[in-house]
Every structure is written in structure tokens, then in C-alpha cells.
Protein 1
Amino acid sequence: MNINQYFNQGAGASFSFTREQASSFAKDIAGDFNPLHDVETKKFCVPGDLLFSIALAKLGVSKKMQFTFSGMVSDGIELDFSCNEAANIKVIDGSEKEYLSINRDGEKSDNAELASLLAQRYVEFSGHTFPHVLVPLMEKENAMINPARPLVIYENMSIDLDRLDIANPTLEVTNTELQVNGKRGRAILQFVFKDGDEVVGRGEKLMALSGLREFDAAVINAVVEDYNERKKAYFA
């Protein structure tokens, strides 16, 4: 994955995105066809996984990392890291509005290939959260998002690696769970990184869901069908 083609380098260490770059990353790299990432949509949003991938490329890979998302990034916003060498880093704009906080600890590697491979493996998994992971969880818990206003917010993700000399990382899902509390819910996706047959790290992705209502298979099936048709049309 050549991450450089999915953002524009600005003055100093700042960076920004065009709608075309962010949308292409979502679809071509992450396999994510959320309408929020469509070039023509009114409420456009840069994928959180693109910010994550750029952070690894620019800051390196630490054994322990946590990424907490706090704001939606649109196109054309100039972003920068608050301090590249700190343990706690924020992704901010020119007005110091925060969009992402990064906490890291332990040994660090500046191996660009490792950063690229870890990012790509995670993004390939993360981008397929809907419908592959969320729909079965919603059915199990008899709860679903509002199809007219599907509010699923990427809260945070964390990675804890045992070592950094990983040759060919792969990702394997170990547990998925949806906790429902009235109209709100939290999806917990846990996974491990492997190098060959050896587990070399663990991770977790958390998402907040709101506007939940009773599960309706016919309605969700229609949403999934529309999603798949959009994906099919894109690659046609």
C-alpha cells in the first residue's frame, strides 16, 4: 500500500485530503462503501482508518498504541501532529481542534514496511465491519441501527504487540460482541496479529451505535443489498 497517494503533503509536517483521495482509500484499500466516504455526499468524512495508516507511516510503530477518534475530518482541512516524539500525540488542525489522540508506549520501530503491512492488514479487517460483522451481531442481540440515519461512530482502537521484528503480519478475529443499552450500543471487535502461526500481538476496535431499535431482517437485508449493489457498481 502506497499511503502517500491518499493524502497531500503540506508545509512542514501538515497534511490534508481531497475527497477523491479519501474515497479511493475507503473503497480500494479498506473495501468500505459507507456513503459518508462518497465523493459527492454532502456530509463527507475522511475514513478514520486513513488517519490511522498515516499515523503509522509518519510516527512509526510502537509496541503499545491506542487511537481515540474525537472529530470527523472533511476534505481540505490542514492537519498536523501536536508533537511527533511525545508519548501522547494529537492530530489537530490550524485552530488546534482535535480529531484524533494517539497514546503509545514501549519500543518503537521506524520500519516503513512494517508500518505499511500492519496498517493494510488492519484496514482490510476494519473496513468490512459492515455488513460482515455488525449485521450478525445485531441479529443476535435483536437490535439494529436506524437505516435512515445509521449512526455508527468509530470510537477507538488499540494494538499491543509482543515484538516488532514481524516479517509478514496477518490478522485474525478472535471475538465480536455487541453490548446493548436501550437505544445505544457498543460493538467490541477483538483480534490478534500473527507472524506465520505465532501470535505476535493483540488488538481491539470499539464502535458506538445509537438510535437502536428492534431488529427487522427484511429492513436490514434491504440495506445490505443496497450496500452490495453500490460496491458492485463501483468495480463494474
Protein 2
Amino acid sequence: MKNRTTVERKSERELVVTRTFDPPARIVFEAWTKPELFKQWWVPKSMGMLLRSCEMDVRVGGKYRLEFEPDAMVFFGTYLEVTAHSRLVWTNEEDGEGGPVTTVTFEEKGGKTLLVLHELYPSKEVLDAAGTGAADAMVETFEQLDELLITLGARVGRS
């Protein structure tokens, strides 16, 4: 049975996205922290955009910067917590100090990884403004991550 992505609004300010991935947490974590892997799955293909530049200094206090084309949109922020293979927390600063804080946890269960992405927005209005488009994009993005992980798993299995 295929893994499903669930998206729930937990409160007026919280959005939680959950999915189980087949590889162990170490491999899933790498896909979130290595720019060459992250670039391959982060942007939903249906949006017709590319991640032109991906800079990631994945350590507490380190910065990230993602530049997209064709419309030159930029996402950037700071890593607040980095715990290898289990937890990432970062700020989303492109809208000033009023952006959400994102927490991603990687919990290994029976060789698979339960991934939970939690976004805490500064207000109900900011989350409302994000709309359902962001949630739909996450479902597609996680499907793309799943495809990449299958490819990585096949490579690991051959080496």
C-alpha cells in the first residue's frame, strides 16, 4: 500500500503534514539537508518552477536560501535546531519577522521513517493567507521526495 500524506490544521496557527517514508531516518534526513538532494524534490513539478539556487548551512545558527525561477521568488531563514537524523527547526524570514517556524521530525519505526512537518504561524491571518495551495503543494512535494528516496534506496542497495 502506498504511503499517504496527511495535512491537518491543528489550531488557528498550526499546520501539520505527516507521511511515512520507507527508508530509514538517516536517508530521509539527508534528503532534507544535502542541497544536491533537496533540489531534486522540493518544488512541486506542477508549478512549472525550478529551484535555481539552494544554499544550506545546516547547523544551529546556519542560514538557508532558496531561489526559484522563472519568477525569482526567494525563501530564506535560519536553522534554530539541528539534531542529526531526528529533528530540524528553522525560521522562514522572507516575509520579515512574521514568518512561520517550521519543525520537521524524523522518527524511525521498523526501518521506516515517520516524518512530521509542523508549521507554527505568527497569527491565524498569516496561516489563512497561505491558503490550501501550500497544503496541496506539500502533498505533491512529499510524493516527489518519496520517488527520490526510492531511487536513493536502490543506489544504496547496489553499493
